[in-house]
Structure to design on (872 residues):
């Protein structure tokens, strides 16, 4: 079996604070985690939970108080590891005197990409993140979303095997989020490993093979999203359109918006209900499982954590 | 090393795009005004006036650039968090630091060279025939550049462990002290205790001595400068920069980026 | 492993570097000393211009220039170099930048007026400096004292000296002896008491060790001069009695004209020279001092 793409062992980070830095605050406590090759791993938690700390530790922007980490089997202190890793910082900001194309060229040079490859690669990347028309504009004129896209482009510029993205969806409009999701799925398709952090759970639920939930500097659970929340579907929600007035007993339980109705039924009664609706001439628009969401699981964890240790600081960064 | 070069070139580009070279315009105006006025008010010493004024202006502008931009080289990147994406590339921290240093020193070289050309044009205006001794002005400019490189290294070091404002104060402070270390030795020693005397002596040899690089008076009077002095000053600047940059690398490599 | 290498490498670089710097600095100092370049102490010699460029920091600049004066004077003095031609421009700039820097007028005037090697030997400039000081600070009566001192000691202009003391004595804060000085100088010109008093005042009021030392030497010489006068009078008496001038002071004692050996302030007995004139003992350090001061008369 090959080594996991990312692996941490007892990774801990304390921040000194207070008068003369005498007090210590644990930002991350003994993180043990593995991200397997080829998977999309979501790293979720509320603001200040330690997501960014973990990622910065992995990128050697900060140094651990204790513990080790390996990426692609190499210790993270090995500079060569960075050749195969792409990184998008949280709320990225780049040299505002450069254009996106120049920024990518600068990074490509640091990556030592040959001149012949550079130009073509940069164009491809700009196209991929939807900046092909804005590539010549100085970054100081970019909106937050455009910066995020530029950041995405630089993260995958050098065709890395592992991509680590810190809040890749933040600051983006729905179209932008969709595009980032497509890029992430595309990376998985190419066989890359993607780890991204987010506090938006639906993103994680939609994309991830596995997620890790971190609250208050501690990892609280790792697994596939549906595994984490349990697949016990409680009910199915049916969404339908009905112009007539028949099937009255059913409609009493449904919520109405104009001619459209929404109705929740237990799993056992599902087919019966559908038959009845069909008989009544209703047009069924959708039928979806209502299950415990990641959000519920997540909220439970946070609540528990708060109750257990009121001292945990959940500070907004 | 090649990557440090890439960083250096980008630093140079940043300086150019941030309109650092605009000071050249100001310098050109100053030299033009000086050469016109000098001819009228200071009969007989036009050359001295032009050279001292020009060299002072080169030194002062260079100092402003090296202190303010030098301190900003790293602290601005930390502040704006442009550093994150860069350091996540296969780039060692010392390469980054060296690149930043090299970039600003390159900027200063271009800047100082351009000002030297302006100075010579003004000199030709007041004194149509140049002599061999006027080459001393070039050496003086070269010494200023060496001095500026050392100032940049110091600014870089201070900005690695303190706030930009303090780093500016420290750099300016050590520069001013460095101008007077020579005087430390000339101080009447009977006024101090033995320990104090020894300490002062040590200090006066180990602190960066910026007075080494000052040959303005010689340049003003077109006196020859021996090659040994050029070699010694070059070596002095190189060694001192190496010391300061080593310290900066040690600090910066351990630094947690907020 | 990597950190271990760094731990060794960094101190080695720093140590080797500083050793290099140490060596180089010595070499550089030697090189520059050989060049013995003329250093422009007064790069800008127009006080008005300096005042203009100093913005609101003119007094600070004045302090800076004053420091240069003291340093300059101190260094040159130690080296016995009498070339003090830079002194006047420096003082001129200092007092223009800060017209209320009394110390600059007072000490500056002494440096300027004293004969070399004590000063620049330019009492005319000293008078100019003090008069400027009086104009800017009319309430400071000590400046009048200095003015009177220069007229009395260096220019030997007793009328002007008397006027200066009189003018200063009009200040209610002025000490009473200012008036006495004015009257005494007007009546007698140069006298032992006046000179002694003036030097004594300098000696007791100055904080500058060099000026104090200088005043002390002058006081000792004044006393020696006065002693010699008295001895010469006795010598005259002796000649009347024995037909020849005394050759040694001991002869006066043997003749019963003197109670004991007459000694100078440093306890060296006085002698009589070949002309039979009383004089300082050549062994006395004061003898050298006297020669030294007289050389520049």
């Amino acid at each position: 079996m090959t080594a996991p793409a990312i692996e941490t062992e007892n990774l801990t980070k304390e921040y000194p604070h207070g008068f003369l830095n005498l007090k210590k605050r644990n930002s991350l406590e003994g993180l043990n985690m593995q991200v397997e090759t080829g998977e999309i791993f979501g790293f979720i938690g509320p603001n200040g939970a330690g997501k960014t700390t973990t990622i910065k530790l992995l990128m050697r922007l900060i140094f651990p108080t204790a513990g080790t980490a390996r990426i692609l089997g190499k210790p993270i202190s090995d500079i060569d590891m960075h050749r195969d890793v792409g990184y998008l910082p949280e709320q990225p900001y780049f040299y505002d005197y450069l254009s996106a194309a120049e920024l990518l060229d600068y990074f490509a040079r640091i990556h030592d990409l040959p001149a012949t490859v550079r130009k073509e690669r940069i164009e491809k990347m700009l196209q991929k993140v939807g900046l092909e028309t804005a590539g010549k504009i100085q970054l100081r004129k970019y909106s937050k979303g455009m910066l995020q896209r530029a950041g995405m482009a630089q993260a995958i510029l050098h065709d890395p095997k592992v991509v680590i993205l810190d809040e890749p969806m933040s600051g983006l409009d729905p179209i932008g989020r969709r595009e980032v999701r497509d890029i992430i799925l595309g990376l998985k398709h190419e066989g890359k490993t993607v780890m991204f952090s987010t506090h938006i759970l639906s993103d994680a639920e939609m994309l991830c093979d596995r997620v890790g939930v971190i609250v208050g500097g501690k990892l609280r659970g790792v697994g596939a999203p549906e595994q984490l929340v349990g697949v016990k579907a409680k009910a199915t929600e049916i969404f339908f359109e009905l112009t007539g007035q028949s099937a009255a007993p059913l409609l009493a339980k449904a919520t109405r918006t104009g001619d459209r109705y929404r109705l929740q039924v237990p799993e056992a009664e599902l087919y019966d209900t559908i038959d009845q609706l069909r008989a009544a001439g209703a047009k069924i628009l959708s039928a979806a499982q209502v299950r415990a969401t990641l959000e519920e699981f997540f909220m439970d964890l946070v609540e528990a954590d708060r109750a257990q240790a009121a001292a945990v600081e959940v500070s907004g960064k | 090393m090649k990557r440090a070069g890439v960083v250096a070139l980008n630093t140079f580009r940043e300086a150019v795009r941030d309109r650092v070279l605009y000071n050249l315009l100001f310098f050109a105006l100053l030299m033009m005004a000086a050469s016109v006025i000098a001819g009228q008010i200071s009969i007989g010493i036009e050359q001295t006036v032009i050279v001292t004024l020009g060299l002072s202006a080169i030194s002062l502008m260079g100092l402003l650039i090296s202190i303010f931009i030098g301190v900003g080289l790293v602290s601005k990147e930390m502040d704006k968090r442009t550093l994150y994406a860069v350091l996540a590339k296969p780039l060692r921290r010392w390469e980054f630091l060296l690149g930043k240093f090299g970039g600003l020193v390159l900027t200063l070289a271009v800047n100082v060279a351009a000002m030297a050309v302006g100075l010579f044009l003004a000199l030709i205006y007041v004194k149509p025939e140049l002599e061999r001794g006027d080459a001393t002005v070039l050496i003086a400019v070269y010494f200023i550049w060496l001095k500026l490189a050392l100032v940049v290294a110091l600014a870089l070091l201070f900005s690695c462990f303190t706030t930009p404002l303090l780093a500016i104060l420290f750099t300016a402070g050590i520069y001013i002290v460095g101008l007077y270390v020579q005087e430390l030795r000339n101080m009447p020693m009977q006024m101090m205790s033995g320990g104090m005397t020894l300490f002062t002596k040590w200090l006066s040899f180990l602190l960066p001595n910026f007075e080494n690089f000052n040959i303005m008076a010689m340049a003003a009077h077109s006196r020859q400068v021996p090659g040994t002095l050029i070699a010694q000053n070059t070596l002095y600047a190189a060694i001192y920069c190496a010391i300061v940059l080593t310290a900066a690398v040690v600090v910066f490599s351990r630094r947690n980026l907020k | 492993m990597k950190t271990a290498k760094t731990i060794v490498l960094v101190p080695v670089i720093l140590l080797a570097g500083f050793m290099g710097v140490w060596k180089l600095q010595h070499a550089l100092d030697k090189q520059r000393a050989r060049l013995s370049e003329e250093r422009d102490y007064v790069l800008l010699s127009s006080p008005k211009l300096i005042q203009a460029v100093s913005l609101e920091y003119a007094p600070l600049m004045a302090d800076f220039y004053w420091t240069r004066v003291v340093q300059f004077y101190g260094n040159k003095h130690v080296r016995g170099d009498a070339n003090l031609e830079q002194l006047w421009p420096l003082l001129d700039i200092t007092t223009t930048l800060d017209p209320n820097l009394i110390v600059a007028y007072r000490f500056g005037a002494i440096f300027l007026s004293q004969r070399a090697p004590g000063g620049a030997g330019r009492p005319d400039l000293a008078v100019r400096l003090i008069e400027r000081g009086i104009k800017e600070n009319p309430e400071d009566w000590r400046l009048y004292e200095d003015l009177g001192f220069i007229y009395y000691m260096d220019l030997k202009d007793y009328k002007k000296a008397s006027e200066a003391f009189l003018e200063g004595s009009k200040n209610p804060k002025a000490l009473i002896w200012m008036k006495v000085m004015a009257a005494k100088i007007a009546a007698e010109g140069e006298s032992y008491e006046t000179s002694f008093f003036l030097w004594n005042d300098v000696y007791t009021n100055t904080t500058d060790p060099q000026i104090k030392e200088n005043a002390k030497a002058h006081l000792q010489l004044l006393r020696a001069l006065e002693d010699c006068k008295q001895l010469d009078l006795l010598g005259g008496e002796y000649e009347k009695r024995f037909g020849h001038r005394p050759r040694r002071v001991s002869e006066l004692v043997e003749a019963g004209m003197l109670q004991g050996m007459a000694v100078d302030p440093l306890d060296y007995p006085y002698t009589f020279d070949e002309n039979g004139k009383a004089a300082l003992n050549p062994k006395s350090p004061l003898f050298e001092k006297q020669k030294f001061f007289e050389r520049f008369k």
About this structure: Residues 2-254 of chain B form one domain. The radius of gyration of chain B is 20 Å. The mean pLDDT of chain B is 87. Chain B has one domain: 2-254.
